[in-house]
Amino acid sequence: MTDDAQQSGPSIATMPRGGHQASWLDRRLQTDELEYLDRDDAPDEVKQNIIGMLDRLGARMNLHEQNARIALDVVSDIPDPRILELGAGHGKLSGKILDLHSSATVTISDLDPTSVNAIATGELGNHPRARTQRIDATAIDAADDSYDLVVFAQAFHHLPPTTAARAIAEATRVGSRFLVIDLQRLPSWALLAFSVLRQPLRLAVLPSASLRPLLHDGYISALRAYSRTALETLADAAGPAIRTRFLPSPPGPGPRSFTAVFSRQDPSHSQ
Ligand SMILES: C[S@@+](CC[C@H](N)C(=O)[O-])C[C@H]1O[C@@H](n2cnc3c(N)ncnc32)[C@H](O)[C@@H]1O
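That is the input. Now the predicted structure with S-adenosylmethionine docked in place:
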């Protein structure tokens, strides 16, 4: 963790997910409630069930490949890119990177040891250009400049503001570029509609024990998603030399995502 992130202190800790300028309504449409994936008391079976569904949804909507292409585009100037995936869950984004690029190497990581173990003992665990490691995005166990790209997909909203700023500081310490692909914060009216519809939706999926946790985590994710201005504030808190660049949002079905690339602008780190 950098001094910059440490010094960001209270104003970042209390920043609304919609940013300091968020409206009265938007500030009420957020939550500190944790997703099952973040709860120590949630059974592994429930967490792995959610990860499995995210994998199947991502495959059906072609998100794994779409995200892998975005990641490879960000390092298209580097012949043999070294890539670290944080919060990989099922690891399919890294798998697609390996399919699409013949010399990229990937470190596939997650905070959750069960997910890391599942990836390590699966097909990807034997890939000659892949390795697996348990890594906390907010305290990355790697030397400075170990990677050309760090990528974190559909997971940044899991981190509260202070730790999110620390993750930006950490990822731009170990990597030249930090690509974050995550849910766009919805307008207040849409969040409000989601809140109103949550109960009927819960009743609708009640018979499906496997869908309920996904709906639960999806709702919390929407409330915890950061706005663009909040992301810029987090980058400033992570360090004055950090630049934020937003790429066009990928088209297609499914929840709208933002794509941001953070990079450190100092002589020892190239863009
Ligand atoms: C919603 S899942 C996304 C999985 C996958 N990246 C995808 O796109 O489907 C969020 C993942 O972030 C991981 N995660 C949460 N907090 C983390 C942290 N501090 N460091 C690393 N991973 C974290 C969770 O364990 C989970 O696997």
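The longest helix spans residues 44-60.
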